[in-house]
Amino acid sequence: MANKSETQTSTKDAAPFGALAQLQEAGFGNMVGMSTAWMEAMGEMGAEVAGFIAERIKEDVKTQHKMLHCKNVGELQHIQGEFIQKAIDQYQAETGKLVEMSTKAFAPEANGEKKKS
Description:
Helix content is 81%, strand content 0%. The protein has helices at residues 2-28, 36-69, 73-106. Helix 2 (36-69) runs antiparallel to helix 3 (73-106). The N and C termini lie far apart (57 Å).
């Protein structure tokens, strides 16, 4: 009877590793060997997104302040137009940064691998 419970415990403990092995077989490669550099890059990307969101919230607050103090509809439309244009520009720039950061993070050199010639 002791053997049966030991087998069940070891099977349960091995379950995460079994799932990882299945992912590797499915083509996800050696996920256990992800480098520290890759994990740091993912952290930097997360920090970049958080910083971007904070800046956008500041822009939202500034725009609301301007809108509350505008004198006429023309001025309100101008404020809204500026806000939209700045948001578009900032989102485009941020997307470019994140694409560049992710390209570096997923590059073979960043993960400790060498490029194949």
